Amino acid sequence: MPWLFFYKKIRRILMKEQIIKIANDLQNEMIILRRDFHKHAETGWTEFRTAAIVAKYLEDCGYKVLVGDEVMKEETIMALPPPEVLSQHMERARNQGAPTKYLDKMQGGKLGVVGILETGKPGPTIGFRFDMDANDLVESNDPEHRPVKEGFASINEGAMHGCGHDGHTAIGLGLAKTLMQICDALVGTIKLVFQPAEEGVRGAASMVANADDMDYIFGMHIGFKADKTGKLICGTNGFLATNKFDAIYKGVPAHAGAKPEEGKSALLAAAAATLAMQGIYRHSAGASRINIGVLEAGTGRNVVPDRAVIKLETRGETSEICSFTSNEAIRILRAASEMYDTPVEIKEMGGAVSADSDPEMVAFAREVAEDLGIFDDIQDTADLGASEDVTYFMNRVQENGGKASYLMVGADIAAGHHDKLFDFDEGVLTKSVIVLATMAHRLGQQ
Questions:
Q1: Are 234 and 246 found together in one domain?
Q2: How far apart are CA 297 and CA 345, in angstroms?
Q3: Phi, psi of 65 (to 5 degrees)
Q4: Is there a contact between 404 and 357 (Cβ–Cβ < 8 Å)?
Q5: How buried is residue 378: exposed, middle or buried, by Cβ count under 10 Å (0-12/13-18/19+)?
Q6: Domain end point (choices 324, 352, 380)
Q7: Are residues 96 and 9 in the same domain?
Q8: Paired residues of 219 in beta bridges
Q9: What's residue 9's pLDDT?
Q10: Which range of residues forms the domain containing residue 317?
């Protein structure tokens, strides 16, 4: 009936205006949050302060908040720092003003946080995932670097938000408050997932079970292929699967002049493996990569080296290609161990699977973005050409019959991602909340 069509259209216009107003009103609050996270940057598995602030903020907004064992599976956590390091960072977080209510539940690096908004009305379960960690990076002290100039440069040595995850976390919290303010117009359930340790693709695998009941999952990133303010990429493809390993060879030390025959060189084993891995065949089904980024060995020129460490990664256009390359690398690592009689321990240090955004969600995001009128350059898709462990969530939802997409929201940036001078146009915070909140509302009305 015509009147019903116009009624729905008017309600949609009114809701759009309401969301835009709420997000604009939250702009200063999100900037304060983003700058606070930037100043107190925490790298993967040490985000105690960030996670505790997120949990308290969600609680204050009225969300059901799950943390620690409630959202993370200990047996699937990859590459945790030693317990003493975690304790030091937890104490640092406490000293830097972390809300204490949730800290004890985060013992052992269980830093994931999930906020749940149950509307009480039938509808889909919609998930949004945000990463919280900083980079292992020393921030520039250039007086023209805006965080230095305006007093929010990182005070935590060796940690810097050089990829925009401080902005992602602030966006997630702005979205939380926005959705709560329009709760009466929502249906179903909203789940906001705040993930630690995305850098090094280590955190998502231990939280992916939180996606089991989701009908939709969305991730997002500031910048990358959306390289200017006002640009939006509605879906991302070309996520490379990856595996990251440390291989530790253990040899036998000996005097290199007096008794060399008594030694077993871990260095030679590691060097042989390093060279041999470069000869792994490429795969006919698509792109594959291997990179040995670190080779450390030896203590002195006259000592047969008794320890060597290789840090490497493999990548593939698909998970199957990556698995082929990884399995070959592991075979070579073990063969070198046998050849030089030096036991090797191989540790999994991170990983992600391949994924693509669902075309239906790309079209949906474009429809929303065009209607909002806040973007001047809207693109359907782009290939990331890198790895991101949001793919665990995307794959899990898709395998269960749901839909997924990963958006890139444009922002002018001061320097490239992972650069010590990285900074971004904070106007992206508001634009991101507006588009994500509108998507959450309209998905429930489909």
A1: no
A2: 15
A3: -115, 125
A4: yes
A5: middle
A6: 352
A7: yes
A8: 129, 406
A9: 78
A10: 241-352
Taking the mean position of all CA atoms in its chain, how far away is CA 176? 19
Same-domain pairing of 347 and 396: no
Count Cβ atoms below 10 Å from residue 427 Cβ, excluding itself. Answer: 16
What secondary structure does DSSP assign to 385-439, as a single string?
-S--THHHHHHHHHHTT-EEEEEEE---BSS-TT-TT--B-THHHHHHHHHHHHH
SS3 letters across 277-292:
HCCCCCECCECEEEEE
Same domain flag for 207 and 260: no
Tell me if 290 sits within 8 A of 276, measured CB to CB: no
What total of structural domains would you count in the chain? Answer: 2
**φ, ψ dihedrals at 134, nearest 5°:** -95, 180
Tens digits of pLDDT across the chain (446 residues): 565 566 677 888 899 999 999 999 999 999 999 999 999 999 999 999 999 999 999 999 999 999 999 999 989 999 999 999 999 999 999 999 999 999 999 999 999 999 999 999 999 999 999 999 999 999 999 999 999 999 999 999 999 999 999 999 999 999 999 999 999 999 999 999 999 999 999 999 999 999 999 999 999 999 999 999 999 999 999 999 999 999 999 999 999 999 999 999 999 999 999 999 999 999 999 999 999 999 999 999 999 999 999 999 999 999 999 999 999 999 999 999 999 999 999 999 999 999 999 999 999 999 999 999 999 999 999 999 999 999 999 999 999 999 999 999 999 999 999 999 999 999 999 999 999 999 999 997 75
Beta strand 307-316 with 288-297 is antiparallel
Q: Is residue 269 located within the same domain as residue 234? A: no
CATH number at residue 210: 3.40.630.10
Helix axes 359-372, 427-444, angle to 10 degrees: 120
Looking at the fold, whether 118 and 181 belong to one and the same domain comes out as yes
231 shares a domain with 106: yes
Give CA separation, 139 vs 11, 145, 147, 196, 340, in Å. 47, 9, 9, 20, 42
What's the rounded Cα separation, in Å, for the pair 117 and 439? 15
Look at residues 302, 333, 352 and tell me which one is the last residue of a structural domain. Answer: 352
321 CA to centre of own chain: 22
Q: Which of 104, 119, 94, 106 is nearest to 40 (CA)?
A: 94
Same domain as 154, residue 138 = yes
Helices marked H in 146-282: 146-149, 165-181, 266-277
The enclosing domain of 321 has a CATH number of 3.30.70.360
pLDDT of the residue at 1: 54
